[in-house]
Amino acid sequence: PTYHVFDMYKVHQDAVKLPVYVESETVNGMPAISASASEDNDGRVHISLTNIDLKNEAAVKIELRGLALGSSVTAKGQIVTAGDMKVHNTFDQPERVKINGFKGASITGGGLAVTIPPMSVVTVELA
Question: Judging by beta carbons within 10 Å of its beta carbon (0-12, 13-18, 19+), is residue 123 exposed, middle or buried?
Fold first, then answer.
C-alpha cells in the first residue's frame, strides 16, 4: 500500500506548496488528520488528507482562502483504505489494497467538505 500513497502524493511534486492549518482530534497523542496542499502549473489544486484513526471517520471542512471557486470547479478524488489495518498485498492477492475513486468530497459555500474513512489516505483535485 505504501507505493499507492506515494503514487497519490506525486501530484505535489513540482507544484507550489499551499499553506495548510489543521485542527484535529488526537489518536494516541497524534493528530488524527494531517494534510498537504499544492497548486500545479495548470492551476489545479490538490489536497491530500490522512486519517490515522483506526475506527472513526472524520468530517473535515476545508476553508479555501484566496481560491475562487466558480460554478465550474469540480472536486474529484482518490482513496487508499482497507477494512483491517493488517491487510496487505501479496503475490497471490496483489489487489487487496489499491487506489480507488473517492466520492466523499463536495464543494460547499467557499470551501470543501470531505468525509475521510478510518485508516485512509485521500487526495482531492479541484479543477
Answer: buried
For residue 41, the model assigns a pLDDT of 94
This prediction's pTM: 0.91
Pairing outcome for strands 26-27 and 30-31: antiparallel
CB atoms within 10 A of CB 98: 14
Residue 79, CB-side half-sphere exposure with 13 Å CA sphere = 17
| Neighbouring residues of 106: CB distance < 8 A, sequence distance ≥ 6 | 75, 112, 113
DSSP state of 84: S
- Residue type present at position 120: S
Q: Report DSSP state, residue 41.
A: T
